[in-house]
Write a structure and sequence with these properties.
Blueprint lengths: L2 H8 L4 H16 L8 E6 L3 E6 L3 E7 L2 E4 L5 E4 L1 H4 L9 E4 L2 E2 L2 E2 L2 H16 L9 E6 L5 H13 L4 E6 H9 L9 E6 L4 E7 L2 E8 L3 H16 L1 E2 L2 H11 L10 E8 L5 E7 H7 L1 H16 L3 H10 L1 E4 L8 H9 L3 E3 L6 H11 L8 E2 L1
Parallel strand pairs: 1-9, 9-10, 11-17, 17-18
Antiparallel strand pairs: 1-2, 2-3, 4-5, 4-6, 7-8, 10-19, 11-12, 12-13, 14-15, 15-16
Length: 368
């Protein structure tokens, strides 16, 4: 008897196994691992770095923090892992925030951080090519700072780098008609900077940029507790106070929170109860700086665009937009409608992602 016929009779095919193999191959092909990542949008923020991949959406949201070993500059942690080390590191390790006031303060560390994030986004792909990158930058950025951003991205593996002003990116991310002659006003409150811009015909008509943001509010809370309670706290604790009980305006709901830190007199750890009213008073200086910047931006806006803003109002984006009562305070001070985006933290990277999706259409909004 023919051996092939004997094998066919003794080893019947398993249809279930074939189906499972085919479905496994189908899943692998559809997973996108064969498709290289060639378009990436980055919001390189003082507090957080967000990355958007064309066709996939936002794939990474990590704190802009790097932990390095002193002396050797060996990376000990990047992103969330490094943020957990802030204020907790031994003598040999230093947790660094390489971006200060919205711009690069340490080029080498920023490059390492950006390369790590880009590899994290592309490491699952079989084929890798150098991606085109759109990066959100502050509108008041200098030529030197712009060069630092570009060189960091190129060194981290980008093929070509485009830049977009953060208020413009935020406006596109929110869905405002930036290419029309109608005036649109955006307030982008980040960790290091507050950017206020009036946008029309794909350009920024008037803008005000101040180096006051969430970090300044944290510093104000640290200073208040040191002066009034002789309590020393770190940045992460100040940030937690801001998020949980911080407010810019009396919203009719007072809160309190137990805060732990080190007593400056005895040197022993202690706990104090802090009320939201105290926090509101202590952060008034940076909050008023933001209000004054909004007023200045409105003063230099052309009258025709001012009438559009009266009708359309002002859109608030960025992490600072989440501070309770800040929209009410601005409404009270300007008598204009204030709108807060549903996801203010992701506006800039969403806008940069839309630019990537239609680069030819949005080419005029890019920073040269």
């Amino acid at each position: 008897m023919n051996v092939r016929h004997l094998q066919a009779r003794t080893l019947p095919r398993d249809p279930g196994m074939s189906t499972e193999l085919l479905s496994g191959l189908s899943r692998w092909f559809n997973s996108g691992r064969l498709v290289p990542v060639n378009d990436i949008a980055v919001d390189l923020g003082t507090a957080n770095t967000l990355i958007y991949v064309k066709g996939e959406g936002i794939v990474l949201n990590e704190p802009s923090v790097v932990a390095v070993e002193r002396g050797t500059s060996r990376i000990m942690g990047i992103g969330l892992e490094a943020k957990r080390m802030l204020g907790r590191t031994p003598e040999g390790i230093e947790a660094i925030r390489p971006l200060k006031d919205g711009v690069i303060a340490d080029v080498d560390v920023t490059e390492m951080m950006l390369r790590h994030f880009l590899v994290q986004v592309t490491h699952t792909r079989i084929f890798r090519i150098k991606p085109r990158v759109v990066i959100g930058v502050p509108s008041g950025i200098t030529e030197l700072e712009r060069r630092a951003v570009r060189s960091s991205a190129i060194s981290a593996g980008a093929k070509v780098v485009y830049m977009v002003a953060e208020p413009m990116g935020a406006a596109i991310g929110v869905g405002l008609p930036v290419e029309t002659p109608t005036g649109n006003m955006v307030i982008d409150i980040g960790g290091g900077t507050t950017e206020i811009a009036v946008i029309a015909l794909s350009g920024i008509v008037s803008n005000t940029s101040i180096r006051v943001g969430g970090d300044e509010i944290d510093v104000a809370i640290v200073t208040f507790l040191r002066k009034n309670y002789n309590l020393l706290i770190g940045e992460p604790t100040a940030e937690a106070i801001k998020i949980q009980i911080g407010s810019a305006f009396d919203v009719g709901e007072e809160r309190e929170m137990e805060v732990k830190g080190r007593d400056l007199v005895s040197g022993i750890p202690k706990t104090v109860t802090v009320h939201s009213q105290e926090v509101r008073e202590c952060i008034q200086e940076p909050i008023q700086a933001i209000v004054e910047a909004v007023r200045r931006a409105l003063e230099i806006t052309p009258p025709e665009l001012s009438s559009d803003i009266v009708d359309r109002g002002i859109v608030m984006t960025g992490g600072g937009a989440l501070i309770r009562g800040l929209d009410r305070l601005l409404r009270h001070e300007t008598n204009l409608p204030i709108h807060v985006d549903e996801e203010p933290l992701t506006c800039v990277v969403r806008g940069a992602g839309r630019i990537l999706d239609d680069l030819h259409h949005y080419r005029t909004v890019l920073v040269q």
